[in-house]
Amino acid sequence: MPHYPKHSDDFEWGYGGSGPADLAYSILRTFFGAPFAEAHYQTFKWDVIAAIPRTARRYTIPAETIRAFAEARGYRIEDVA
Predict the structure, then answer these.
(1) Which end of the chain is less congested by CB atoms within 10 angstroms, N or C?
(2) What is the pTM (predicted TM-score) of this model?
(3) DSSP character for 23?
(4) How far apart are the C-alpha atoms of 24 and 76, rounded to whole Å?
């Protein structure tokens, strides 16, 4: 996953801080581009990234979760691998 730093030097999860914000932004930017990421990364952070157990060392966010988040905001995609 490329890191597009906005707030932090590292990815984190399990709470609502700057590391989780960068992870959320980087995921959305990778899949949907910068404009979508800018508009929605804070919501994605709270809805998805903050819910990951902070102690998790490995975690997979299902493609369907990412797809459903985008589609709920009017973004249609054919396939997220």
Answers:
(1) C
(2) 0.88
(3) H
(4) 19
Distance CA 13, CA 35 (A): 22
| CA contacts within 13 A on the Cβ side of 3 | 13
Instruction: Please write the tens of the pLDDT for every residue from 29-67.
Output: 999 999 999 999 999 999 999 999 999 999 999 989 999
Sign, CA dihedral 38-40-42-45, equals negative
Q: Under 8 Å CB-to-CB from 18, ≥6 apart: which residues?
A: 7, 8, 12
**Structure tokens of 41?**
């990364």
3-state secondary structure at position 3 = coil
**CA pseudo-torsion sign 70, 73, 75, 79:** positive
Distance in angstroms (rounded) separating the CA atoms of residues 78 and 53: 30
